[in-house]
Amino acid sequence: MQYVNLDYAGWDDADFSERAVKQIEEGHRLGAAGFKEYKRLGLYLKDGAGKLIKIDDPKPSDVPGLDQIDVHYTFGPNTRDDVFYISKDGNKIIRGEVYNLRQNPFQHDLDRLKTDLSPSFGTPGAPVVMVVFSDFQCPNCREEAKTLRDNLKSGRVAEKVRLYFKDFPLTQLHPWAKSGAIAGRCVFRQSPATFWQYHDWMYEHQAEITPENFKSKVEEFAKTASDLDTLQFGRCVDTKATEAEVDKEMAEGKALKVDGTPTIFLNGRKLVGNYPWTNLEQLINFETDYQKTAQNAGEKCCEVKIPSPLNK
Q1: 35: containing domain
Q2: Last residue of a domain, one of 47, 72, 95
Q3: DSSP assignment, residue 114?
Q4: In sequence order, which ranges of the chain are alpha helices (DSSP H)?
Q5: How many helices (H) does the chain have, and how many strands (E)?
Q6: % of the chain surpassing 90 pLDDT
Q7: Is the pLDDT of residue 42 over 80?
Q8: N or C: at which end does the chain have fewer Cβ atoms within 10 angstroms?
């Protein structure tokens, strides 16, 4: 077994993978051939705390002359994946994304984004679709949620956008986030429109909620929602009846390499963290103009997906 002292500070930082690779290369003097050799010997990179970096077998990639190697980081319950491309002679390695210029450059992620039976608001058939992966206990998500709700419920670009909400609770950081997601899906089951009331209420009261008072706080919300059967809602929350739905969305996020919140996919373009409204508005306007000719993203007009218990 080989060991490397890997600095796991800043695990959630966008450049963590790049820094980790540099540490590995420095500690082991590994080039591309070294990656192959480690896998050939069936070894893992591992530090003394049991944190693993697993390297998969090379496999053919979509790029002629390059193989693909998937690298998986494991840190306790958390995982993170990266893709590397390696020359056939094992002397050169590339870390990055590969885009097919003959199609939408974000098609890979668009194919993996599933918006059916997700809470949504905005214009059916809009040229711009935003899919937001969020966490009810995340302070940055609270700020981004307010920005999006303030500007997309009405405003200069509201008619251009359809927004979908996805649960992605960061359970290792936020102890009541998944419970909040489960409760939100319980609301959505009863009344899709009331979900957005829950969404806004939870972010508005985020600072008041703790794991200890979570149940009483969601009961407090339920009393304000006229369309909610409070007894049915309470049973749903107590039995975690919607946990499988939340788990499914978390798995979808991981497949899209979401590892922080908020993460927004704007017509497939991945935006991580809080984005100022000025920047988002520019992207929305750009996509709106682009889709007039490209027609390779957005929402098909006028395909409206209505949640139904028959579609479970």
Answers
A1: 2-95
A2: 95
A3: -
A4: 16-28, 32-40, 107-110, 139-152, 177-190, 192-204, 214-224, 230-238, 243-255, 277-291
A5: 10, 12
A6: 60
A7: no
A8: N
Domain with 211 in it: what CATH number? 3.40.30.10
* DSSP letters spanning 139-160: HHHHHHHHHHHHHHSSSTTGGG
Give the Cα separation of 264 and 253 in Å (integer).
11
For residue 102, being part of any structural domain is answered with no
Tokens of 44: 């893992």
Q: Is residue 100 domain-resident?
A: no
pLDDT in tens, 65-110: 999 988 887 766 667 788 889 888 888 888 878 877 778 889 989 9
> What was the pLDDT predicted at 311?
42
Mean pLDDT computed over 27-50: 49
User: What residue has token string 């450059």?
Assistant: 105
Q: Are residues 154 and 85 in the same domain?
A: no
User: CA 66, CA 35: separation in Å to the nearest integer?
Assistant: 14
In order, the DSSP letters of 232-279 are HHHHHHHTTTTHHHHHHHHHHHHHTT--SSSEEEETTEEEES---HHH
Q: pTM of the prediction? A: 0.75
- What is residue 45's three-state secondary structure? strand
Rounded CA gap, 66 and 104, in Å?
22
Whether the link from the prior residue into 262 is cis, omega within 30° of 0, is yes
Closest to 207 measured CA to CA, from 267, 113, 138, 253: 138
The residue among 195, 209, 115, 130 whose CA lies nearest residue 162 is 130
Q: Among 95, 120, 152, which residue terminates a domain?
A: 95
Q: Which residues contact 111 (CB under 8 A, 6 or more apart)?
A: none
